[in-house]
Task: inverse folding
């Protein structure tokens, strides 16, 4: 028992079979283990039962009396058996715990996989929304405005526009001042048209405050207005 204190060493301690170091370790363990203390008290009955056996003839003078060899062998075999049983129980418990963890992970993965949905995508247009469609060009667009201390944050979506084109978005103030929010290229066949159904989306900003902006215009590079979105 030199490596650790075993509960099954109660019998060996009661019969004086432990080495000095093991005996001290067990006595320290005994001070806090009610189960071992109760079992040790029960060993008193065994001591009385063995009191009729005289081991003095087998022991040198001055040495403590030891139980007969069959008793010692019985105690040692019981210790070995109890330790094997405990090791098997620990192994079985560990295997069961591992199996439960594996089952839990498997079930969680299976159920979660059935119910999992892709995370919601952020909206292309955020804030105060304004939309317009140009009857002449057929282009349609939406702006989203968020007022900031430094100006206005702008999200923009454009659809039903054919390419190839080069365009830019302008914020226009009530006084006619213009600020370019951003520019882009429209490849063939375009955005929001047959063969290319997705709209063009972009983010931009202007130093104009929300109250200063009167409209947005999609302007074709080289001249011409594709779309006007009034506020």
Result:
């Amino acid at each position: 028992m030199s490596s650790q204190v075993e509960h099954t060493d109660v019998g060996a301690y009661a019969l004086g079979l432990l080495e000095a170091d093991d005996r001290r370790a067990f006595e320290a363990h005994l001070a806090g283990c009610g189960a071992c203390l109760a079992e040790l008290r029960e060993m008193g009955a065994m001591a009385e039962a063995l009191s009729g056996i005289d081991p003095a003839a087998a022991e040198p003078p001055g040495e403590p009396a030891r139980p007969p060899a069959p008793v010692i062998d019985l105690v040692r075999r019981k210790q070995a058996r109890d330790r094997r049983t405990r090791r098997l129980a620990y192994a079985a418990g560990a295997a069961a715990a591992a199996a439960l963890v594996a089952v839990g992970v498997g079930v969680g993965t299976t159920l979660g996989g059935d119910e999992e949905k892709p995370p919601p995508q952020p909206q292309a247009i955020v804030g105060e929304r304004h939309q317009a469609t140009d009857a002449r060009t057929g282009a349609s667009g939406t702006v989203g405005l968020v007022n900031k201390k430094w100006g206005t944050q702008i999200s923009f979506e454009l659809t039903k526009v054919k390419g190839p084109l080069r365009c830019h978005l302008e914020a226009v103030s009530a006084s006619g001042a213009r600020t370019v929010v951003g520019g882009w290229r429209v490849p063939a066949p375009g955005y929001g048209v047959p063969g290319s159904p997705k709209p063009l989306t972009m983010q931009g900003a202007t130093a104009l405050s929300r109250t200063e902006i009167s409209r947005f215009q999609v302007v074709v590079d080289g001249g011409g207005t594709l779309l006007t979105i009034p506020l």
